[in-house]
Structure formats: structure tokens, C-alpha cells
Amino acid sequence: MNTTGKFDVVVIGGGLAGLSFAILMAQQQRKVLLLEKKSFPYHKVCGEYISNESYPFLIRIGIPLESMKLPAIKKVRLTDHRGNQVEEELTLGGFGISRYLLDQTLANRAKEVGVHILENTPCTHYTKENHGFDVYTSKGVYTSEILVASFGRYSMGNFSKASKQGVNWVGVKYHIQYEHVSDEIALHTFSNGYCGISKIENGQSCLCYIVKASLLKKYKNSLSALEENELALNPFLKDIFNKAVFLYDKPCTISNITFEPKKPVLDGVFYLGDSAGTIAPLTGNGMSNAMRSAYLLHGILESYFRNEISIKEVERNYAKQWYKAFSIRIFKGIWMQQLFCTPVLTSLFIRIMRFAPWVKKSIIRQTHGKTF
Ligand SMILES: Cc1cc2nc3c(=O)[nH]c(=O)nc-3n(C[C@H](O)[C@H](O)[C@H](O)COP(=O)(O)OP(=O)(O)OC[C@H]3O[C@@H](n4cnc5c(N)ncnc54)[C@H](O)[C@@H]3O)c2cc1C
Q1: Could you tell me the distance, in angstroms and rounded to a whole number, from the CA of residue 345 to the centre of ligand 1?
Q2: Would you tell me which CATH number, out of the four given (3.40.630.30, 3.50.50.60, 3.90.1520.10, 3.40.50.720), belongs to the domain 5-63+99-163+259-340?
């Protein structure tokens, strides 16, 4: 087999997990190739609230957050369809940044530290050989000792779309101009979904919702009918849809989101971010989790490249650390998502949280981890 290039590590997917991992490895002088099927910058469906868990990490890898004038987010507000609401300080807090800007900044940094990035280059498949992996793309075949999959919500191994089992969700994002409290993220719930709004750069706001695909189907896949008949039942969302200036011609959407369990290591391939396990967006830390998984794997792989441990030990250690860091949080996120997608339970919970503030504090503690 004639290969186009040989690398220590090939990374499939240039989202936050793949890019931050590639930066870390290149900073250790490893020869890294990152394959991205799209080209930077581009809009991605995401609430764009990033928890401060990953703030020090981003600074360490060379992202100049301090000078980027990003809005700090310190409070969260939860509302229901009856107009009830409850507010709480976020213990750790976070900040707002569009994925357009964040992914592009990371991609620039990756190029700066020597990562070979191939944009518009989807990986189609790979084979495991004695010398490592042969990774196939439209531009050629690349050989790699280590293969890292960070292709987001796509399923393992075969790179096909997410599993057909379980509930399918659809995500929708807009950038808007709308007057609202600048240091808060509001989570407006509706039947079978929820919608977040918070500030990002340049005074804009990100409005992003996730909804069960079955509900959208009821409206023959018309987002405007869904928004009018379901989201607008929540008075806070009705006000947003009536008054906001929508900055895109059309919304940014993704389908086939599932929260089925996946695995961090499979057939010798290491999975990062959403491709290892997708956390419910309402926890607001999918992005931080994606980067934390990159941080974990990079630390273990460095011991391998220094000949201190075998590849089997890397697999065992990464799986162990991954489950310890994420499995309970993913489970709790799914549980909370179920709760806040059921209007009667959300209303009841808001009432409980008003009378028992420790309940809200405890819920917020469940969603965020420690800084890294
Ligand atoms: C509706 C919604 C709202 C969310 N809101 C928030 C929030 O407010 N805060 C938060 O922290 N998290 C949020 N999340 C979660 C967060 O977006 C993800 O956890 C995070 O993007 C995961 O990063 P990643 O790098 O694993 O995947 P991604 O960012 O999805 O990156 C995967 C990359 O792989 C590329 N790719 C895919 N297949 C291939 C292939 N075959 N070859 C080459 N490249 C490929 C894709 O183009 C993409 O660039 C939200 C998620 C959803 C669905």
C-alpha cells in the first residue's frame, strides 16, 4: 500500500476535542495529522456557553481568552411554560463564545504549533495493520501509529450516523440581537425540549434548542411551525421569537443526536469528546468535557511515547480515567434532560427549588466538574 504520509498520531475530526488534543501532542513534538471534513470557520449547533472548567486549559494551550473580551456568565435561570422561573448563581460559571470563533482560533493555534491540518478531507474508513493504522480519505491514505477518533456525534467504528436505537433529537441554533441580562444563561423549557439563550462575542446572543425529533415530525419538519406552536407556549420564548433580530438567513441545524452509551476505546482506536459519549446539552459542559478527554488521553499517551507503558496499558488507563471522569455525569445529564423535557415535572421542580434552595445548588453542582 502506497501511503501519502506517516504520522505518530492521526486525529479524525477537528472539533474542540480533536483540535485541543492535536495541539497538546504537537506541543510534545509529535507528528500529528488532523482530518476535518469541513473547512474552518463554520457555524456549529451548540449553546456556546462554555464552563470555566476548561478556562485554564485553553489559556495553557495558547488561546488568549483574556484579550478576547468575552462575556462572563455567572447565573442560570430556569423557566417553564407557565412563566414560573428560578435563578441561581453558577458555582464555577463560564463564558460565551461562538463555535465559529472558538474552533477557528483553535485551528489557527494548531497550525501554529505544527499540526498538519487537512480541511475538506473526510476520513472514509481505516484498517488496522501490523505497523499501525492506514487511514483513508479522499486525498489519500495516511499511516499512523495512534488513531484518535473525535468526529463528534457520529457512531464508532463505521463512521455512519448515530445509532437508530433510543430517542433521536434535533438541535437548532440562531445568533440573535435581543436585550437580556448579559451575565446569565437562561434555560427555557417546553414539552419535549428546551432552549438556552446567553451572550457570545460582539454583543450577540446564541439561541439554541434541542427537541425530540418525533415532535418536529408532528409539524412535518417545519421549524417555524414547531417554534410557533410549541416553543412559544413558554412566554419567555414567545417574547424572544417576537422581538429578537435573527442574524442568519436560516438556522443552523443538526439531526440524529442520541445519548446512547458509547466506548472510549474500541479496536485500538481512542475516542474523544462526543464520539466517546455525548452529554445532555443542558449541563452546559459538553465542550469542557470534550477538551478534558483530550487532556486525559494526551497525558497517558505521552508515557507511551516515552516508552514507559505499553499500548495496552494506554488503552486500560484511558478507559479507566474516562469512565471515572464522565460516566456518572453523562448519566445524570440524561436524567435531568428527561425531567426538564416534561412540563409538569419542570413546574413541580421549579416550585421545589424555590422553597429548598439547597436543591438548586445541588443540581448545579452535579453539572460542573473541577477546573483542569
Ligand atoms: C443543541 C446542543 C447544544 C449544546 N450546547 C452546549 C453548550 O452550551 N455548552 C457546552 O459545553 N456544550 C454544548 N453542547 C455540546 C457540545 O457542542 C459538544 O459536546 C462538543 O461540540 C463536542 O466536541 P467534539 O470535538 O467531540 O465534537 P464536534 O465539535 O462535533 O466536532 C466533531 C468534528 O468532526 C468532524 N467530522 C465528523 N466526521 C468526520 C469524518 N469522517 N472525517 C473528518 N472529520 C469529521 C466534524 O465536521 C466536526 O468538526 C451542545 C450540544 C447540542 C447538540
Answers
A1: 29
A2: 3.50.50.60
Q: Tell which atom from ligand 1 comes closest to the C-alpha of 273.
A: 26
Check if CATH label 3.30.9.100 holds for domain 169-257+344-367: yes
Answer for the pair 121, 139: CB distance below 8 angstroms, yes or no. Answer: yes
pLDDT at 219 over 50: yes
Tens digits of residue pLDDT in 274-289: 999 989 998 889 999 9
The closest residue, in CA terms, to atom 31 on ligand 1 is 15
Task: Give the model confidence (pLDDT) of 90-136 as tens digits.
Answer: 989 999 999 999 999 999 999 999 999 999 999 999 999 998 999 99
Q: Enter the pTM of the model.
A: 0.95
Closest Cα to atom 52 of ligand 1: 46
Q: Which atom of ligand 1 is nearest to the CA of 274?
A: 26
Output the CA 82–ligand 1 centroid distance in Å: 32
Domain boundaries, the chain: 5-63+99-163+259-340, 169-257+344-367
